[in-house]
Design a protein that fits this description.
With 307 residues, the chain is mostly helical. The chain has one domain (27-296): Orthogonal Bundle (P1 Nuclease), CATH 1.10.575. It has helices spanning 2-9, 12-22, 34-46, 50-59, 74-78, 104-107, 119-130, 144-159, 186-202, 207-219, 227-231, 236-255, 267-296; strands spanning 93-95, 164-166, 176-179, 182-185, 264-265. The strands form 2 sheets. The chain has a 3-stranded mixed sheet with strand order 4-3-5. A two-stranded parallel sheet has the order 1-2. β3 and β4 form a beta hairpin. The longest helix has 30 residues, at 267-296. Bound molecules: 2-acetamido-2-deoxy-beta-D-glucopyranose (3 copies) and zinc ion. The site of one 2-acetamido-2-deoxy-beta-D-glucopyranose (NAG) has 8 residues, from α7.
């Protein structure tokens, strides 16, 4: 009986978490891992200005105590639910094999060719929806809480280089290989393996310490001179297209490079890719904060047109 009482007190959100942990989850393909998304969202939330921090707190359900990162993986958990099936193509972009470029007109569509249904279109869409929140002009058809969670999640996905990958191998998902001694695939290496290996080798498996070092590296470390340029953005839509182009470039130069299906990736691959993964997590967080500060802040959202 007690268990039912507890369940009744929990929101849909926490229930969806429980479900994800208790079911065997195939949807774990095609996403920055839980750790990657959590770090991106924590970094972003720490960079919010007061108005944006307040709006985010207002939009989050009570049971997460104002912690955005607790729900940043929610879109991965619901993508196979019937109600949210329309979101499944929004996590990534398939580009033509070996083209190593991103072209919005050519590449941003779902598998049926429906335009705008890719991660760039989604970020534009949810940014646009949220931009009406501050003026109280939000369309009642749109759920602002969901828009925030989708935006936060997709800003993580777009910075995972293999989320903008080749069509035939599904962003590396069909490239089976070994990561050190266990079976994995190239997509998963970038989603999770590199992060977990780093956490285990350098941080005693403590993801919080890893995240703090990433933050230290852009506040006063190796990336401190670069942060302004990461954040720099005159027009959100152009910037988001640029983030996708950065990802496919990294995917070609570092992700797919010299990788053959069936082989074993280990120290050499890890050592040369580690800092790239960390930088993408940092950039995702800094840029998510930039967008949220604009959407909820005082200055005009010139770049976003009203719908
Ligand atoms: C934008 O969001 C609405 C729901 O809020 C959805 O119906 C539409 O398909 C989305 N489009 C994109 C490109 O994300
Ligand atoms: C918005 O979406 C969340 C998560 O799906 C849900 O719990 C909440 O009830 C929705 N709010 C409204 C006003 O529909
Ligand atoms: C932070 O920067 C140092 C170099 O100053 C580097 O050795 C370390 O790997 C970086 N850590 C992360 C998590 O990026
Ligand atoms: Zn995702």
């Amino acid at each position: 009986m007690l268990i039912f009482r507890i369940f009744r007190k929990m929101s849909l959100f926490s229930l969806s978490f429980l479900l994800c942990f208790s079911l065997i989850c195939e949807p774990c393909v095609q996403a920055w891992s839980k750790e990657g998304h959590t770090m991106t969202c924590k970094i972003a939330q720490d960079l919010l200005k007061p108005e944006a921090a307040h709006a985010v707190k207002m939009l989050l359900p009570d049971d997460v105590n104002g912690d955005l990162s607790a729900l940043c993986v929610w879109p991965d958990q619901v993508r196979h639910w019937y109600k949210y099936r329309w979101t499944s193509s929004l996590h990534f972009i398939d580009t033509p094999d070996k083209a190593c470029s991103f072209n919005y007109q050519r590449d941003c569509h779902d598998s049926h060719g429906v335009k705008d249904m890719c991660v760039v279109g989604a970020i534009q869409n949810f940014t646009n929806q949220l931009s009406h929140y501050r003026h109280g002009t939000s369309d009642r058809r749109h759920n602002m809480t969901e828009a925030l969670l989708f935006l936060a999640h997709f800003m993580g996905d777009i910075h995972q280089p293999m989320h903008v990958g080749f069509t035939s191998d599904e962003g590396g998902n069909t490239i089976d290989l070994r990561w050190f001694r266990h079976k994995s695939n190239l997509h998963h290496v970038w989603d999770r393996e590199i992060i977990l290996t780093a956490a285990a080798d350098y941080f005693g498996k403590d993801i919080n310490r890893l995240q703090e070092q990433i933050q230290g590296n852009f506040t006063h470390g190796i990336w401190s001179d670069d942060v302004a340029s990461w954040r720099d953005c005159a027009d959100i839509f152009s910037c988001v297209k640029k983030y996708a182009a950065e990802s496919i470039n990294i995917a070609c130069k570092w992700g797919y490079k010299d990788v053959e299906s069936g082989e074993t990736l280990s120290d050499e691959y890890f050592n040369s890719r580690y800092s790239i993964v960390m930088k993408r997590i940092a950039q995702g967080g800094v840029r998510l904060a930039m967008i949220l500060n604009r959407v909820f802040g005082d200055h005009q959202m010139d770049s976003i047109t009203a719908t």
